[in-house]
Amino acid sequence: MNTLEKEWLENFIRFWAAPQSRFELLRSLFAENIKLIAPGTPTVRGLRRALMLFEKTFQEMPDLHATIHRYAFRDDILFIEMTFMATIAGESFAWDNIDRFLLANGKALERKAFFDPTELQRRIGNHSK
Questions:
Q1: Residue 63, helix vs strand vs coil
Q2: CA–CA separation, 58 vs 128, rounded Å?
Q3: Domain residue limits, the chain
Q4: What is the pLDDT of residue 55?
Q5: Would you say domain 3-127 falls under CATH 3.10.450.50?
Q6: How far is Cα 90 from Cα 55, in angstroms, rounded to an integer?
Q7: Which of 37, 76, 101, 102 is found 20 to 30 A from 4 (Cα to Cα)?
Q8: Closest CA to 125 of 60, 63, 42
Q9: Distance from C-alpha of 51 to C-alpha of 24, rounded to nearest angstrom
Q10: pLDDT tens digits for 5-23?
């Protein structure tokens, strides 16, 4: 892992510790042509759309944050194991996730999230009714 990649990881960890106060860090993490893939949602392409997705997510879950547990890096691919936490409909909820990033020149070109969206979607769906 080179210096640029270490800095990227440090910024990612800092962002998820308190994302609402560090939203500007997303711009430094993602390339203009970022591709975001997550279960249960359409693929998002481009920095502008990615930022809009995160804004919408934080509107639905204002206290959303994550704890990073461990990571592994090899050949421009970074895996990050983490647990997300948020309050949904007045109840605390946590779910485990693994993000796989393709990095180039200090930016993420692609993020693919691996988690079971069933319970999260149920809770958000029930809350928005």
A1: coil
A2: 14
A3: 3-127
A4: 92
A5: yes
A6: 20
A7: 37
A8: 60
A9: 10
A10: 899 999 999 999 988 778 8
Backbone angles phi, psi at 5, to 5 degrees: -70, -40
- DSSP-derived pairing of the beta strands 44-45 and 65-74: unpaired
Please report the DSSP string for 60-129 in residue order: H-TT-EEEEEEEEEETTEEEEEEEEEEEETTEEEEEEEEEEEEEETTEEEEEEEE---HHHHHHHHHHT-
Residue that has been written with the tokens 């909820």 in this structure: 93
Q: How many residues does the chain have?
A: 129
pTM of the predicted model as reported, rounded to 2 decimal places: 0.90
Residue 112 has a pLDDT of 98
At residue 64, the 3 state secondary structure works out as coil
Q: Which residues in the chain come in under a pLDDT of 70? A: 126-129
CB-based contacts of 46: which residues, under 8 Å, 6+ apart? 32, 33, 34
